[in-house]
Amino acid sequence: MNDKSVFIIPLEWMNRYKKLADFGKVKDDSILINKGNYTLLKDIVPPEELVISDKNNITYQPSTKLKATLRPYQEEGVKWLVKHNQNQLGACLADDMGLGKTLQTIATLVFVKEQLTPVPEETKTIRLDLFSDPLEFKTHLKALIVMPSSLVFNWAQEIVKFAPHLTITKYTGADRKKLAPYLETYDIILTTYTTLSKDIAALRKITFTYLITDESQQIKNKESKIFKAINDISALHKISLSGTPIENSLSDLWSQMEFINPGMLGSYPFFKEHFKNPIEKYQNEDRIKELKELIEPFILRRTKEQVAKDLPELSEQIIYTEMLSAQETAYESEKSAARNSLLGIDAISNNKIHILNTLTKLRQLANHPMLLDSNTEYSSGKFNDVSAYLETLAKSDKKVLVFSSFVSHLKLYQEWCKSQDISFVSLTGQTNRSDREKIVNEFQQNDSIFIFFISLKAGGVGLNLTKASYVVLLDPWWNPFIEKQAIARAHRIGQKNNVMVTRFITKNTIEEKILQLQNQKKHLSDEIIDIDKIPDYIENDLVGLLK
Fold first, then answer.
1. Which terminal Cβ of the chain has fewer Cβ within 10 Å, N or C?
2. Euclidean distance between CA atoms 145 and 239, whole angstroms
3. Structure letter (DSSP) for residue 143
4. Is the pTM of this model over 0.90?
């Protein structure tokens, strides 16, 4: 209208169409929205007109080629992933650890592969020359699965076990460049986040049918090379796999959604202004509801309590140990020095390293003085209690997983095992990747090996150790989620026995303070503390930690 008349938009209209204005883009006389934002139309478009896909969807039925029987919730998970495939939408499978995210993914890939493969009468053949035999033309799935390096052997093992007809290759190691020209001739390509980041120039040239990220919290940092590289890969379909409750961190959530359905939450500056700040600073209920409605169709999370009711019981106990006299004297001396040093420093980045190093020294002393001084003659109250506990389990022919965040701590118990003629295996960051599978199989299959020593960082994910019915956590970690991952190595699908988890905590030390922080901060994100980064809550509670 050109007569300068004013039209007052009713409030009802504003409420109804505002989200379209926030997320839509105007093109000619139309408003276009991201396909991943289809939920915005539910109050605008009649349900019968809201069709996401016009493809002829095929109802999922487990393939006879899948060498596994899916549990009901797993079959539902596969159907959910297949639906997103057919609708050409990304998906985040966020089931609790140990519920079979790997199997559900493999089952999905088996189904998708069968939809791609021509039926026998339509199979084509090609002849390279007049003298060669004709070759059958095969359709390759071309699914790229990206994961931490520690999970490569586990994925390969699971694929061979459950889908031996699929062709796989490991795009890792020094010789991987020789594989690059042939990657499109495999059904599944396994690689690591580090390798993908380094080889992005070669990998971006391929259009993969699937791009799947395991332990997908690895891409949460939107400024990282890994995040930028993963979003530079061309793929028709995307799945992210993570046992982490993604809702814990809104920035992490944006990264996950940006990967599986680019643009559905808008640009990060928009997301920060529209969702992150209102929710984190002011607990804005309307924005919380709006965000949940947007992401709900794309995140599937089931907990063990919800779906694996037949999983054996998990029991947890804390055993409090006391320091020996000389150990306590050394601890108190170190704590006094730490208080004088730390409580007077400024909270600047280079001092964060100093804070972490000082707190680490206190944690080590609470475990055993030898962790700070290998030549000391002082012993440890915790060591005496833990070794007596492990000896009882070994004499009873019980298999046990022993976790610590300190490799040097594990070595003390390994030496003790040798002196007691107790068989054990171990896995740390120093273990060759090629040896991991052999070590796991040895523990699972050899009944004479009773103890598996594992460092939290190296063995917290990707291990199936259901032969163990006891788990020992030698020292508490800042983030309880990491401990939960460790426990899930034994308490998972396939476990036949009840699982007992025992935490050994040294009384009147920083270890008790860490437990208190865990209880207060159950909503913590899944961050692992880097050497140059510690969570704000630790800095804020320095006085309490050093009391």
1. N
2. 9
3. E
4. no
Q: How far apart are alpha carbons 17 and 195 in whole angstroms?
A: 45
Say if residues 495 and 489 touch (Cβ distance below 8 Å).
Answer: no
Please tell me the distance from the alpha carbon of residue 55 to that of residue 287, in angstroms, as a whole number. Answer: 33
Q: What distance lies between CA 284 and its chain's CA centroid?
A: 29
Q: Of 395, 398, 453, nearest to 429 (Cα)?
A: 453
Say how far apart CA 38 and CA 49 lie, in whole Å: 12
Residue with tokens 């509801």: 289
Cβ-count burial 75-105 (b if 16+ within 10 Å, e if not) = bbbbbbbbbbbbbebbbbbbbbbbbbbbbbb
Give Cα 87 to chain centroid, integer Å: 25
Non-local CB neighbours of 268 within 8 Å, separated by 6+ positions: 222, 254, 258
pLDDT digit string, tens, across residues 414-428: 999 999 999 999 998
Q: Residue 236 — φ and ψ, nearest 5°?
A: -75, -35
Q: Is residue 472 within a helix (H) or strand (E), and if so which, with residue range?
A: strand 470-473
Query: Environment class of residue 154 by beta-carbon count within 10 Å: exposed (0-12), middle (13-18) or buried (19+)?
Result: buried
Residues in a beta bridge with 400: 451, 470
The CA distance from 97 to 71, in Å, is 15
User: Are the beta carbons of 256 and 246 closer than 8 angstroms?
Assistant: yes
In whole angstroms, how far apart are CA 121 and each of 36, 111, 141, 500, 506?
A: 38, 20, 20, 56, 70
The kind and range of the H/E element at 402 are strand 400-404
Which residue from 178, 236, 177 is spatially nearest to 206, judged by alpha carbons?
236
| Residue 480 amino acid letter | P
pLDDT (tens digit per residue) in 17-64: 666 666 666 666 666 666 665 666 666 666 555 555 545 567 888 999
Structure tokens at 434: 């090629």
pLDDT category of residue 2 using cuts at 50, 70 and 90: low
